[in-house]
Specification:
Layout (H helix, E strand, L loop, with lengths): L9 H4 L18
């Protein structure tokens, strides 16, 4: 998994905007 604090790390800050994938490979975040 890719550890990108500017993309994949946002799922921790905004758990309501990321996709339901625990790996965090693809998540929809409003940047």
């Amino acid at each position: 998994m890719n550890a990108e604090p500017k993309s994949h790390g946002v799922n921790v800050l905004k758990p309501c905007t990321f996709d339901l994938r625990p790996d965090g490979s693809h998540l929809f975040v409003a940047r």
